[in-house]
Design brief:
By secondary structure, this protein is mainly beta. The protein is built from one helix and 31 strands. It is 1% helix and 53% strand.
C-alpha cells in the first residue's frame, strides 16, 4: 500500500527507520509493527530506494529471536561498515518477560554482522551488554555507532536514563567506545541536559563546519529535535526553531547522499482511522530533506523528487486574487473538488497587521467544513485546524471546549509582512505542508475524504500571487530498482 514518496507495508506499519546509504541506494531498515495480538515479536524489515519515490524489495532483515530470546523484540539501532567491508548492525534487544533490577523489561545492546552485502546477518550474542553503572536497566536502547576520526575510536551513543534524580528529567545520552566493534567500554555521557524523560533514536553527523545531534523526545512534546556544535565536545547550541516537524512525525534519523541529507521518519496513524483518534505508535514512512543555512541552522522540506511526481495541472484560483477583510473573514474556493492526491502551491503577499490567512483543504462548497492550514503572523506560527471540531462536553460543545486548533499540530515560524509560500502535498490520508521551504507540518486527514481547495484571510489583506494545483499523471511507474538492489555488490 505504498504511496509515491511514502512507504507503508501491506497490512502493517512502519516504526523507527534505520537508514543506510551506499552506492547511491538508500537501504531503509525499519521496525515492522503488525499490531497483532498476541505479539509475535518485532523484527526489522527493509526496503530500498534510489529515487526517494519508489520503494522496492520489502523483506525481513532481522527476525525476532523468538519467545525465549533476549531479542524477542528487535528495536532501534544503527549500521556501520568496517574497513574490511563487513557491515555491523547494533540494535536493541528486549523481551517483556525478562526483567531488570528496576522491574521493567530489560533492554540490551546487541550485535550482528553481514559479509554478503546485507542479505543476511549473523548474530553475536557474546557481544551483548546492558546498562552500565548509574543507569536504569530498563532504558538502554537505540545504539548509534559512528567513527570518531580525530580520536581514532568507535563511539556508541545510547538512549539511557540516570538511576536517580527527578523522574521526568533523568534522560541522558550515554556513551561507550570501542576499537574493534566487539568490546565496548563505558565513557562519560555524550549529552546530559537533565531536561527530558529520554532522548530516543540519537544520532550525530558532521556537515561542513558544524556537528549536529538529533534525537526524539516525548516529555515536553512528542517530536524530533536537533542541536548544533562546532565540535563533538559541544557545547550543543539550541537553534531558534529546533524541531524537524510536528507531533505526527517522529523518530526521524538521517542519511546523506552526496551533499544532500535526508531524514526518514514516520507519520503516525490515529486510532480508528479518525481525526479524533488517539495518535498511535508507527505509521507511514515519510522523507524530508534538510537544507543548511549560512548560520548552520537547518530548513526542512519534502525532496524535489517527491514534488516532481505531481505534474498534471488542475483547477486553481486566478493569480492576483485579492482577499481583503479588514474586520472579518473572506475566502476563495476552487470550482471543483481536489483529486485524492495533489500538490498545492499557494504564494501569498500578506499585508502588515493581518491576523491570519492560509489555505483550505477538502472544504465544503461554502468553505466552512474541512481542514485549515492557518498562518498567524502575530503569533509566529503555522497551525493545522479543522471544522467541525469534536463535539464533546456541556459547554462550548461546538468547538470541543476551549480547544482552538488541533492540539500539538502547530509549528513556530517567522511571518513578517510580504511574500510567503505554502506548499502542500496530500496523498490519501497523508498531508505534508511546508512553509517557505523551511518549516514542515505533517498530519493525517481522515474524516474529510473529498472537497475543494481554497484560500482565506481573517482580519487583514493578502494577495494570491499563485494558487496552483498539480495532480499525478496516470503513467506506469518506473520499475528500475528491483529486489536485487537490496544487496550491496562490489
Amino acid at each position: 500500500m505504498s504511496q509515491r514518496g511514502f512507504y507503508q507495508p501491506e497490512g502493517a506499519w512502519v516504526g523507527d527507520v534505520i537508514p543506510w546509504q551506499e552506492e547511491g541506494v538508500f537501504h531503509l531498515f525499519y521496525l515492522y509493527e503488525s499490531r497483532r495480538t498476541p505479539k509475535e515479536g518485532m523484527p526489522w524489515h527493509r526496503v530500498a530506494t534510489d529515487d526517494l519515490t519508489e520503494f522496492r524489495g520489502e523483506q525481513v532483515a532481522l527476525a525476532s529471536g523468538g519467545h525465549e530470546a533476549s531479542d524477542f523484540n528487535v528495536y532501534t539501532g544503527s549500521i556501520v561498515r568496517a574497513e574490511d567491508g563487513t557491515h555491523h548492525v547494533f540494535y536493541t534487544g528486549q523481551n517483556p518477560d525478562v526483567r531488570g533490577q528496576d522491574g521493567r523489561p530489560l533492554q540490551l545492546v546487541m550485535h550482528a554482522t553481514s559479509t554478503d552485502g546485507m542479505r543476511s546477518w549473523q548474530r553475536h550474542p557474546g557481544d551483548t551488554f546492558g546498562a552500565t553503572a548509574g543507569y536504569e536497566t530498563g532504558d538502554w536502547r537505540d545504539p548509534f555507532v559512528f567513527w570518531d576520526e580525530q580520536a581514532s575510536v568507535w563511539r556508541m551513543l545510547i538512549t539511557a536514563r540516570h538511576a536517580t534524580g527527578p523522574s521526568r528529567r533523568r534522560g541522558v545520552i550515554a556513551q561507550c567506545t570501542s576499537h574493534d566493534l566487539s568490546t565496548w567500554e563505558p565513557a562519560e555521557p555524550f549529552w546530559n541536559p537533565r531536561r527530558y524523560l529520554a532522548h530516543e533514536c540519537p544520532e550525530v553527523f558532521q556537515w561542513g563546519d558544524w556537528w549536529y545531534l538529533v534525537y526524539s523526545e516525548f516529555s515536553h512534546a512528542f517530536t524530533t529535535r536537533y542541536r548544533m556544535a562546532r565540535s563533538l565536545d559541544g557545547p550543543w547550541l539550541v537553534p531558534e526553531h529546533d524541531t524537524i516537524d510536528g507531533r505526527a512525525y517522529y523518530a526521524a534519523k538521517s542519511a546523506a547522499r552526496g551533499d544532500r541529507r535526508f531524514f526518514f521518519g514516520w507519520i503516525a496513524s490515529r486510532e480508528g482511522g479518525a481525526d479524533d483518534g488517539a495518535w498511535q505508535w508507527a505509521g507511514t514512512m515519510s522523507v524530508l530533506e534538510a537544507e543548511q543555512r549560512r548560520d548552520g541552522t537547518l530548513a526542512f522540506h519534502p525532496p524535489t523528487e517527491l514534488r516532481e511526481t505531481f505534474s498534471e495541472p488542475g483547477h486553481g484560483i486566478p493569480t492576483g486574487t485579492v482577499l481583503a477583510a479588514p474586520e472579518g473573514y473572506v475566502d476563495a474556493l476552487t470550482a471543483v473538488d481536489a483529486p485524492s492526491a495533489f500538490r498545492l502551491r499557494a504564494r501569498f503577499d500578506i499585508d502588515d497587521a493581518t491576523t491570519e490567512c492560509g489555505v483550505l483543504l477538502r472544504a465544503g462548497v461554502d468553505g466552512d467544513e474541512g481542514y485549515v492550514l492557518r498562518l498567524e503572523p502575530s503569533r509566529g506560527r503555522l497551525v493545522f485546524d479543522r471544522w467541525p471540531r469534536r463535539a464533546t462536553g456541556t459547554e462550548q460543545w461546538q468547538i470541543s471546549g476551549d480547544v482552538p486548533f488541533a492540539i500539538e499540530l502547530e509549528r513556530p515560524c517567522r511571518l513578517p509582512a510580504g511574500e510567503h509560500v505554502l506548499d502542500v502535498i496530500v496523498d490519501g490520508d497523508l498531508c505534508v505542508a511546508t512553509l517557505d521551504d523551511a518549516t514542515v507540518l505533517s498530519t493525517r486527514l481522515y474524516d474529510h475524504r473529498t472537497g475543494r481547495l481554497g484560500a482565506f484571510v481573517g482580519e487583514g489583506t493578502a494577495t494570491l500571487l499563485e494558487f496552483s494545483v498539480l495532480s499525478r499523471a496516470e503513467t506506469e511507474r518506473d520499475e528500475h530498482l528491483d529486489a536485487d538492489a537490496l544487496a550491496v555488490t562490489r
